[in-house]
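**User:**
If convenient, please work through this fold.
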Amino acid sequence: MELRDYARILQKSWILIAVLLFVGIGAAAGFSILQTPKYSSSAKVFVSTSGGSSVSDLQQGNTFSQQRVKTYADLATTPIVLLPVIAELGLNLSSADLASMVTATAPLNTTLIEIGVTSVDPALASQIATAVSESLTQVVEKIETPADSGSATSPVKLTLVQHAEVPQVPVSPNIPLNIGLGGLVGLVLGIAIAVLREASDNRIRNERDVEAITDAPILGGIVFDPKAAERPLIVHDDPRSPRAESFRTLRTNLRYLDVGRESRSFVITSSIQSEGKSTSAVNLAIALSDAGSRVLLVDADLRRPKIHEYLGLEGAVGLTDLLIGRAEPEDVIQPWGQRDLFVLPAGTIPPNPSELLGSAALLKLVNEFNRAFDVVLFDSAPLLPVTDGAILARTVGGTIVVCAAGRTHKNQLKGAFTALANVDAPVSGVVLTMLPTKGPDSYGRGRYGYGYTYGDVSLPEERVSQ
């Protein structure tokens, strides 16, 4: 993934990331509040040697002390030191329990031993630290006193140089640190889940997903309209809407597509059903006729025809009657609207749609339509369920593949292009439909939109055709 991919993921999943961030902070705060505060107090013991007054003697004594100080620090957590403390303070603890509360450290190159004690009782922590320090001095003096000499003085002396103070602030839990760590864990978890979800998402979301599958140009994008089922003819019903402008942009791009081609006929199809191919075909036809083109819209979906329903026309006779020679074009082609838009319904649904669409009669009709109209649009069945669309695309010579963002899977779009490639049908371009109006994949981000808002005044035609 590139940096902009991660930025897009963060923008797309910021709610999830924010929720997990606050969950992490809340969990850490709750954990910290439920913990019993613990206090830490420490005392320091100085280790020295006696005997000798020369510099050499003092140096040897200091070296000896540094060598023994680590041993004395380890001695501080042994029962020989801790049992007298338990007896002195009357603690209801074993030596092992008390040892878990005591830490003894010897800083490097020093003759100091720091004895720390952690307890839920701050006063008790201070008492134990001081008592352990005193007990250690006594035990070391007893151990280091030679048993076979007449001297009763130990050459090593431990001196309590810092008494333990009663702590005022607990050392555990560290609430700011815990909250910071909890927030960090939640943030990392949220980002990881967002990235994993994006990596496992197999749906087409934007033009980059399409470009990763095919080299066919992207002709435009149609924004999602929750009321599309109620007003399928958006170019006619609400010409000032952003969705209607999307079809006018598509119309403009279609004018410059395959410049030099004799035929201006296109099959409009999709990978699967319900991707908006039929409504796209109808609105594109209306937009083309509004711009002055003589347009024929043919409902070549001989399995589930919809064009006549959208336009409110009679669909009992149509393309199938022409293909079997039961009618003439002038008998079944119907005008629609105030412009040069003509519609050829599908007619009676036949038992053999693929054979009819691959017949010589259809090729003859396509040639006649190309001579009589500026643009001919064929609404076809989806490519993956049946072969009708691929067969028709090979005959017509130009294909526009409609792909619904957020609905079509990447392997489905690949399968559609594979079906067209298997019959050597040329692909003119791709139209993305159902694009969201908000978010990183929204209409207007990139090549789809102009980036300005629409008011009550419709855009001039010269602006649309630029």
Remarks:
- The chain has 19 helices and twelve strands.
- The two ends are 34 Å apart (CA to CA).
- Residues 164 and 433 are 74 Å apart (CA to CA).
